[in-house]
């Protein structure tokens, strides 16, 4: 039970890391002829937070930056060069001085398990830990390992959400 709780907490942390620093910009995703309604936090604060003002699509709508959430491409960097490129669609990724974090869109448990095998083939064979549980009808899976260069990878899947972290 402790391992299951740890796995769930790890998964929540991965998703939380992916959520950090989002800044949503719909500028390229809306038809400029159509009006866009958005919530402006500055205006809400000045009017007591009562009503969200409407703005036109041509105005600045970048209140939340989702950092490439839509159509994210697999990045090339020190961390991602350690692992094979996943076959799953990347929902979001973030690289900083601590490592790389990614969330995958519509990944299945079988895809995550198959990718864990690819990670093993790519040299992530030290200190391997695998958790594969069914909790209340939901698959919860976790794979973590190190490679000979000292990079660590953690791959998680729970309730249709999947994520990965790479660090050194």
Class by alpha and beta content: alpha+beta
**Low-pLDDT residue spans:** 21-47, 51-71
Give me the strand/helix succession. Answer: HEHEEEHEEEE
Radius of gyration over alpha carbons? Answer: 19 Å
Shape: globular
Task: Tell me the number of helical segments per DSSP (H or I, 4 or more residues long).
Answer: 3
- Largest beta sheet, briefly? 6 strands, antiparallel
Tell me how many strands there are.
Answer: 8
Which strands sit side by side, in order, in the main sheet?
A: 3-4-8-7-6-5
Structure write-up:
- With 168 residues, the chain is α+β, with helices and mostly antiparallel strands.
- The chain has a domain at 70-167.
- 22% of the residues lie in helices and 31% in strands.
- It has 3 helices and 8 strands, in the order αβαβββαββββ.
- The protein has helices spanning 2-19, 41-46, 109-121; strands at residues 36-37, 54-55, 89-96, 99-105, 126-135, 138-146, 152-158, 161-167.
- The strands form 2 sheets. A 6-stranded antiparallel beta sheet has the order 3-4-8-7-6-5, with helices on both faces. It has a two-stranded antiparallel ribbon with strand order 1-2.
- The radius of gyration is 19 Å and the shape is globular.
- It starts with a helix and ends with a strand.
- Residues 21-47 and 51-71 have low confidence and may be disordered.
């Amino acid at each position: 039970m402790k391992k299951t709780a740890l796995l769930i907490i790890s998964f929540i942390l991965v998703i939380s890391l992916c959520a950090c620093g989002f800044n949503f910009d719909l500028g390229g995703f809306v038809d400029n002829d159509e009006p866009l309604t958005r919530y402006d936090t500055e205006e809400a604060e000045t009017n007591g937070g009562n009503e969200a003002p409407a703005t036109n699509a041509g105005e600045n709508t970048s209140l939340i930056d989702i950092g490439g959430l839509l159509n994210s491409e697999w990045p090339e960097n020190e961390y991602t060069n350690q692992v094979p490129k996943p076959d799953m669609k990347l929902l979001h990724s973030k690289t900083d001085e601590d490592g790389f974090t990614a969330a995958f869109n519509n990944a299945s448990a079988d895809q995550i398990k198959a990718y864990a095998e690819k990670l093993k083939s790519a040299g992530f064979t030290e200190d391997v830990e695998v958790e594969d549980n069914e909790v209340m009808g939901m698959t919860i899976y976790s794979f973590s390992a190190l490679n000979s260069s000292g990079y660590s990878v953690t791959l998680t899947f729970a309730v249709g959400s999947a994520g990965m972290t790479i660090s050194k």
